[in-house]
Amino acid sequence: MKQGFRQSMASLHTWVGLLPGWVLYVIFVFGTAAFFQYEIDAWMRPELPAETRVSPRALDAADALLRKRGAGAESWNVSLPNARGGTGLSVSWRMPGEGYRDRSEPITLDPQTGEKLAVRETRGGFFLYRFHFDLHYMPVMWARMIVSLAALAMLVAILSGVVTHKKIFTDFFQMRFGKGQRSWLDAHNATGVLALPFHVMMTYTGLVTLLFTLMPWAISANYPTREAFYADAYPQGDERTASGTPMPGLPLRVLVAQAQQTWHGAQPGSITIEHPGDAAASAQFYARRTGWGDGLDEALRLDAVKGTALPDAPPNAGAARMTQDVMVDLHTAWFAGYGLRWLYFLSGLGGTAMVATGLALWCVKRRAKLADPARPHFGFRLVERLNIGFIAGAPAGIAVYFLTNRLLPITLPERAEREIDSLFIAWGAIFAWTLARPAKRAWVEALGATAALYALVPLVNAATTSRGLLSSLWNHDWVFAGFDGAMIALAGGLAFTAWKVLRHQPKSASARRQRNPQGMAA
Predict the structure, then answer these.
(1) End-to-end CA distance of the chain
(2) CA distance 445 to 5
(3) Closest alpha carbon to 134 in 123, 145, 144
(4) Within 10 A of 61 (CB to CB), how many other CB atoms are there?
(5) How far apart are CA 433 and CA 388, in angstroms?
(6) Lowest CB count within 10 Å: 18, 20, 149, 440, which one?
(7) Residue 30 in 3-state DSSP?
């Protein structure tokens, strides 16, 4: 029988939602967490002080350290703390002949006193941010291709979903609890419609950020290499070569003050000094931007000996690049204050719930049509277990990632990688457990275990650091207090979900047939 347009859209919505659905769920979970990546960085590096402003004394200490340890280097690098936390004042250097990746290990200093800090090795929230488009344990290009195709399917699923649900906005106001399949559909509609503009915007702008992964032909048709394209699209100022004449540069404190004066008080985010100790030394400043239209999107270049401004890079911001920049900014939300950032985060949770309820709905609908729902075929059981493994396993892995940050020895070699390994070991354990258990028990136990893991995070934090929840509230340490509070809220939400699943009693197939004999026959 030939399908109508709406039925065709419904089939399209179902399959483009299911097949990449697990990847989309992972993208939403990790991408949503990434809106607070710097706050996560701060929590995962408790040795860093809550104060992020840099004092002249600390800059003098960084300057003295670079002149002593980095003498003869080709470049010095200085990173200043982010106002949201998670990074300290750090310095590193690169000796002649070394590549960018070969530069020295960064040394972290207290931004107020300038004393060295022993900060635990971790990739913090940055790993969660990168994982949502780079994945892990696979080549980056393959990962980005998978993520790009999943995002493309997401865009198709959103548009076909709007067409399929002709009463979608009416149904949004009709949440019916305890109605089985109807309740799952209501939840899917509500979470999809509530933040529909956000879902469309994030999916489309996400595709723009990975534009050249999906469509590299514009570059390959016009440039010999990608490096040539980026050199043309993002031109740099003329590089200065070393003169060979030794000349001490201005103190770091003076250079930073000069940059702040040029930027009307804005603090630099990072500084690179080329050829330090040479008469032709230059300092390049990158701003820590806080808002659109602040005019700080271009680097500032100064003569590191005289403090005078050097010629800027030639402007090359055409309409296409400016459009792409706006799209990327909307996706990353770097400009957002805490109010807008929480709105992004809650909308991301809505998107996560939308994908999760869509995956669960697929199983609920098909179980009702099985000849023997108690003994489903292999394909159905596989999809059902994958749903549990992804929906409960990914959050469980993140909780274990936080716990191992507190429990692993500080001096453990390759500590950051071991934290990441723990995330995937926990995730895999949830998968293995769900394969061995009946579906309902697997849901309850996986969700319950994940809730328990999140509840443990603030307890373990209080036991292993001096910045537990009560102490943080007392000292107005809002980043730590907010993080622990979020862990408790997640634990409560997951425990409530597990409890609802435990109490759910599905109607028998015979009762459904008696209630709706015509519908079942159809």
Answers:
(1) 13
(2) 41
(3) 144
(4) 20
(5) 10
(6) 440
(7) helix
Distance (Å, whole) CA 499 – CA 504: 9
R_g of the chain computed on alpha carbons: 27
- How many helices (H) and strands (E) in the chain? 23, 6
**Could you state, in chain order, the average pLDDT of each consecutive group of 10 residues for the chain (522 residues)?**
73 80 95 96 95 93 96 94 91 87 87 94 96 95 94 90 73 66 76 86 93 88 88 78 92 94 88 94 88 73 92 74 88 90 94 91 84 83 93 97 97 95 97 91 96 98 96 95 97 95 72 48 36
How far apart (Å, rounded) are the C-alpha atoms in residues 467 and 32?
25
Strand partners, 302: 283, 309
pTM: predicted TM-score of the whole model, two decimal places: 0.90
376: its two tokens: 């489903």
Among 396, 389, 425, 405, residue whose Cα is nearest residue 120:
405
> What type of residue sits at position 189?
N
**DSSP string across 387-398:** HHHHHTHHHHHH
Q: Tokens 């080329």 map to which residue?
A: 274
Q: Are 155 and 203 in contact (CB under 8 A)?
A: yes
